[in-house]
């Protein structure tokens, strides 16, 4: 099989991108730098503007203001078909009257590549996604996962500067989704192609990305590596959107907060009654008949066990513990809750 | 279990099958047999008569009329459907045109002929109103009763029929296909040449054949408008049915009917092929 290293991969620079639909501001002053060969995920809930941002990069939407620079060239007003990018869509977008091979070869046909050459290259690309034996099948004869693989091969066939993925896995069942996301990541690394991946699935973003750009209400909340986003969320929105969080009442006093009797450093100084956001894995439990918490549920999840309890003030608390450690606890038992001494975020008290 | 299910399905379908057998199957068999029967037994004379002379002319004129009206209706109907498909789904344009098409596609026969005569005939209301305002359409009025007039009248129900038939195909073209093609480097023209056009061709061809068959089989509008002065196959069959036939040619009408059925069946077979192809693609 021919190795298809993409030598055209380019950096992307979005500056002050704004796009409104009537009174709704879908993208609001978005600034984002994407390095050449990087896979960045635009992550956020529905309506946060991530797809609009992607479509602006693709040229399928126009900006109201701001610039899109790719490989050092301003392409803000360049039509989509002149941008040298490829896109894979959420819903299956293969051309139904063309076989898998003809779909993959479509972009090459537009570029005037001879039929024999483009057929050979289409088969190479289909090999890359393990579908060369389905080259002559029509889209209606392929499963959803196979169709998305063909769509990916079609996008890669033209060796684009940038690969744009608009929730390409969301229509697939869980097993295929996990398999395909690994394949996409492996391919992206192998080809070194700059990739922008839109998703609302945090697990997908965390497992696939070099960096994640979390968006909310058209704005960029935080951009960083998956580890940074998870362990050092910049805003309560990011903290709550990525992973799960405990919401525990506390009293802030400048740089620290007192919560369930523990004193923790604050990421952002504050004062007064607040709700403290604490990850389940930052919760520590010790067996103590005079403790502050009663365990209500214990659920085994392989290497980790989730222990759910209720603080004496009625606040529910969730702890993710190594299963070996959790084995000593029982439902109905009393424990004392403390927290890892890491900086925490707060939001206004409920 | 499967057998019982199959019998249950057949039982449910039986009223329809009975209806088709009585009103389509049996008459077709009678026509097919009768077309080959003469006073002296089996013969090809009826078929020969049906495709030569005045009856042969009727096939030519019917085919000509059907082709012209089908092609014009298909092109105009496609353009109208494009406009509707681009309009907002809940917007008034789509609602009005879709509803109007449903009504107009079924407005034919004597009422349609009368409507045209009353409006555009030599003493029609529109003709006279335009005349008093300095616009003379008398030449069109006079042509209302010949072949070109018949084409215009047929367009009245054929164009809405085309809109109804082709609109689902246009709506079936997914926006993602345009965007996928654009992102792969396709111009608008290339999209239509390589994607939109090939996808629309089977439904368009199918609709064209349906319009041809619809026009070919129309009787009442032509009979009422031209009083039988234009030789069309359905009108010739009507005349044979009413006894207006030379001695010994009583079964020529059956041969004419058989010819018409074969032509329409071919057209509908093509329509079925187109439908199957589109369904397979869009499954």
From TrEMBL, chain A:
PROSITE patterns in alphabetical order: ABC_TRANSPORTER_1, ABC_TRANSPORTER_2
| Record-linked SMART domains | AAA
Q: Which organism is it from?
A: Kribbella antibiotica
Q: What is the lineage of its organism?
A: Bacteria, Bacillati, Actinomycetota, Actinomycetes, Propionibacteriales
Record-listed E.C. numbers: 7.6.2.9
Protein name, please? Answer: ABC-type quaternary amine transporter
Q: Per the database record, which ranges form the ABC transporter domain?
A: 12-242
Keyword Transport found: yes
UniProt cross-references to Gene3D superfamilies, sorted A to Z: 2.40.50.100, P-loop containing nucleotide triphosphate hydrolases
> Source organism's superkingdom?
Bacteria
GO MF annotation terms? ABC-type quaternary ammonium compound transporting activity; ATP binding; ATP hydrolysis activity
UniProt-listed PANTHER family: SPERMIDINE/PUTRESCINE IMPORT ATP-BINDING PROTEIN POTA, SPERMIDINE_PUTRESCINE IMPORT ATP-BINDING PROTEIN POTA
GO annotations of cellular component type: ATP-binding cassette (ABC) transporter complex
Going by the UniProt record, its keywords in alphabetical order are: ATP-binding, Nucleotide-binding, Transport
